[in-house]
Amino acid sequence: MKARSMFALVFAALLGIVAYKIVFIPVSVNMTSYPRQIFVNSSTPVDIKVVAVNRIGFPIPFMRLHGKFVIQEGAKKIQVLKAGNDEMVFNTKDTAGKLVVLYYTPIIPFPVEIVLNIETSSIACLNPSLFFLS
After folding, report:
1. Using CA atoms in the order 64, 83, 81, 92, what is the torsion angle rounded to 10 degrees?
2. Comparing 9-23, 34-48, 64-78, 118-132, which segment has the lowest mean pLDDT?
3. pLDDT tens, position by position, 68-113
4. What is the predicted pLDDT for the residue at 134?
């Protein structure tokens, strides 16, 4: 009986260690931007968030990343409002083009890159009152 309870205890400890490594150890970093389409001179600020991802593909609970954003290309096309450890908020200026943002973190040896296209205005961002005759 004693050997069986010792085996169960060792098995539970190993299962706990494996579960910890699957859920709480980061394997990659995911960068997302909102809104997805970015327009020139938009009044909506663009928000880039960085999240650490575990082995099963979900964000790691209770983990905040510590890193740094670097604008590799297109720095003159945006105005940064806020740049923290895991979030960057900016507004676009009056030029269209490509924006490349790198994120450096000690968790992953290589920087994570996000490429955003700043587009000229489209019909979606025009004032709806322009379409109605008064």
Report:
1. -100
2. 118-132
3. 999 999 889 899 999 888 899 999 988 888 999 999 998 888 999 9
4. 46
Q: Quick check: is 131 in a domain?
A: no
Q: Alpha-carbon torsion 18, 19, 24, 28, what sign?
A: positive
One-letter amino acid of 124: A
CB 133 within 8 A of CB 116: no
Residue 108 pairs in a beta bridge with 105
d(CA 18, CA 127): 55
CATH code of the domain in which 91 resides: 2.60.40.10
Containing structural domain, residue 42: 2-122
Residue 129 lies in a domain: no
Spatial separation of the C-alpha atoms in residues 114 and 123, rounded to whole Å: 26
